[in-house]
Design brief:
The complex is a heterodimer of chains A (about 230) and B (about 350).
Chain A: H1 6-19, H2 33-41, H3 45-66, H4 70-86, H5 97-118, E1 134-136, H6 149-159, H7 164-175, H8 180-187, H9 192-228
Helix pairs in contact in A: 2-3, 3-4, 3-5, 4-5, 5-8, 6-9, 7-9, 8-9
Chain B: H1 5-9, H2 12-19, H3 23-34, H4 37-52, E1 53-55, H5 62-74, H6 88-118, E2 133-138, E3 144-147, E4 153-156, E5 160-165, E6 174-185, E7 194-197, E8 202-205, E9 209-214, E10 220-227, E11 230-234, E12 237-241, E13 245-250, E14 253-258, H7 261-265, E15 271-278, H8 279-290, E16 293-297, E17 305-311, H9 315-326, E18 328-333, E19 336-341
Parallel strand pairs in B: 6-7, 16-19
Antiparallel strand pairs in B: 2-5, 3-4, 4-6, 5-6, 6-9, 7-8, 8-11, 9-10, 10-13, 11-12, 13-14, 15-17, 18-19
The chains are: A mainly alpha (about 230), B alpha+beta (about 350).
């Protein structure tokens, strides 16, 4: 004779239903950012863990552009995610989790860095030339090379002259692939065009510098040739 | 007008194609570039610039990732709903609140009961002389300051017990019994000496400030003087201490020496200090200071000595430093700390 335990199975399915009301296990991958975020906001632990795993590197790396103090970053990350969880039911919806996290993480990180700076514990928290430092790599495996090493030298020299703000906008635009609208919000600009203008200005400066440097290089080479002859 | 490579690379759609291509974008751009060879050559440059951009890049190591995630999950109250739809936090808080309420009421009633039962029945004429002994116990992880009836102040360190008369009006001396550590600031009263009685010593002062450290499970007792003069007696021995001096009592012998201000008196202003201390000793200090319990796995260093000086720091900050020096991992779970030696 078959013995059934309806009570137990009912309860189990009740658990499954309530704890995963948005999706079945393992289905997160197909969710849009918006839906994954909604899962997290309504208390889904799996969604939280996935969000953490997907974005902890992004946030850590963003932080690294500001400071090389990795322990400070780890602490900040820890506090940040605790804050997110505790506030989760009151978080606003978003269709780009990355953007949302970068924006609120930045606020928290800057608070921490500023308070450290005030305490004078770390004078080197903000080393301006280190902030969002980047260069054009000389990687040769790229197909279709358009620039010579000399040209890259010239561009890199020009990059060094960019302001920290310009570099940060370039980081967010090209490295994190954010839109101008998102960047404006992260940077606290009133108009989207501000972010666009900044990226354009920075890159255009590179172009002008490139032209000038190439001209100088040309002159230099010509001189060399003349003198050698 | 045709776009040059700078304009192209700052074009949101173009950049997004280079960084995150998909079929739709491929179709769009390939078609566009095919019909415009000059734009195509600019596009190559723009693409190369975008792909060559190199920022500082470093992923977080897996171990830290796990550590942070564990800590985050264990240390946050999620304001979500539990399986039955009750908001967890609200209910949890209410429970805690009720528990606290019950505990405080019980404590008050208890005190009242103890006061009444142990109070010797007095005749009306004796009432003036009545004064009761107050006992205060400070648990690990806490410190507390009391003002005695003569105005003297006692700051009692964690894991200590102190007993004193509720009133010194009708006593010959101002006597305080101490187990553990306390810092005294005694109001001067030459007519009534102030005495601290510990396990093995008696400290007599008129008006000074000094620290007494006498934990029952330590075989050494320390008396360190900040201001004024202090007389310390133990059995037949007696020493007089000046400011900056400390008496150490061990096996009935009193020795006088200078002391390290932060080591002896730092606790009072929130400075956790250890110098050339063994791992064991530091853990004990932390247990007292933060009211936590340690659980150690792996082999701990026996011979290494550590020094540290922290002002009003969290346990985490201290463990962060110590774990680096001694080479261990740690996990703080509420009041339990796991220490794992690699």
């Amino acid at each position: 004779m078959k013995i059934s335990k309806p009570e137990v199975s009912n309860k189990k399915s009740f658990y499954l239903q309530t704890s995963n009301h948005h999706n079945k296990k393992g289905d997160y991958k197909n969710l849009s950012d918006q839906d994954l975020w909604n899962c997290f906001v309504s208390g889904d632990e799996g969604a939280f863990v996935l969000i953490y795993q997907n974005y902890v590197d992004t946030l850590f790396n963003y932080g690294l552009q500001y400071t090389k103090d990795e322990n400070l970053l780890k602490d900040t990350l820890q506090d940040f995610f605790i804050y997110l969880r505790e506030k989760s039911s009151r978080l606003s919806p978003t269709n780009s989790i990355k953007f949302y996290l970068l924006k609120s993480f930045k606020r928290r990180l800057l608070q921490n860095l500023n308070s450290l700076k005030k305490k004078n514990k770390m004078e080197e928290v903000f080393m301006n030339e280190e902030l969002f430092k980047f260069e054009l790599s000389y990687e040769t495996k790229l197909i279709d090379r358009q620039f010579t090493n000399h040209q890259l030298d010239a561009l890199n020299a020009a990059i060094k002259k960019l302001s920290a703000k310009e570099k940060e906008v370039i980081y967010l635009f090209f490295f994190e692939n954010l839109t101008y609208r998102e960047i404006s919000e992260i940077q606290g600009y009133l108009h989207i065009s501000s972010a666009r203008r900044l990226v354009y200005k920075a890159l255009d400066q590179l172009r002008l510098n490139l032209k000038m440097m190439l001209f100088l290089l040309f002159v230099f080479h010509e001189f060399n040739r003349l003198f050698k002859n | 007008m045709r776009k040059n490579f700078i304009e192209l690379s700052t074009d949101e759609a173009f950049k997004s194609w280079v960084l995150a291509p998909n079929e739709e974008k491929n179709v769009f751009w390939e078609k566009r570039l095919k019909n415009d060879p000059e734009l195509a050559s600019e596009a190559k440059k723009a693409k190369e610039i975008i792909l060559r951009l190199k920022f500082k890049q470093k992923p977080l190591d897996e171990e830290s990732k796990d550590k942070i995630l564990d800590f985050v999950i264990q240390n946050s109250n999620r304001s979500n709903q539990d399986d039955f739809g009750f908001p967890q936090r609200g209910w949890g808080n209410r429970k805690l609140f009720i528990l606290k309420l019950v505990a405080s009421v019980a404590l008050i009633l208890g005190c009242f009961y103890v006061y009444n039962t142990f109070q010797p029945k007095q005749k009306p004429s004796d009432i003036k002389k009545v004064s009761s002994l107050i006992e205060k116990k400070i648990p690990k992880g806490q410190k507390n300051t009391f003002t005695l009836s003569d105005g003297s102040k006692v700051k009692v360190n964690s894991y200590s017990k102190i007993k004193f008369e509720s009133s010194f009006l009708h006593t010959q001396e101002r006597k305080v019994y101490l187990e553990g550590e306390a810092f005294f600031e005694v109001v001067r009263n030459e007519a009534k000496p102030f005495k601290v009685i510990t396990k093995n010593a008696e400290i007599k002062v008129l008006g000074t400030s000094f620290d007494v450290r006498s934990y029952p499970d330590h075989n050494k007792e320390y008396i360190a003087v900040a201001t004024g003069k202090v007389e310390v007696t133990s059995g037949a021995e007696a020493v007089y201490l000046q400011p900056g001096e400390m008496a150490v009592l061990e096996n009935g012998k009193l020795t006088v020496s200078a002391y390290d201000l932060e080591e002896m008196l730092g606790w009072e202003s929130g400075i956790l200090f250890y110098k050339e201390a063994s791992f064991e000793k530091i853990l004990q200090k932390l247990e007292f200071w933060y009211g936590v319990e340690f659980e150690i796995s792996g082999t701990k260093p026996e011979l290494t000595r550590y020094s540290g000086n922290y002002k009003n720091q969290s346990l985490k900050t201290i463990l962060e430093g110590l774990s680096f020096a001694a080479g261990f991992d740690y996990k703080i779970q509420d009041k339990k700390v796991k220490i794992i030696f690699k």
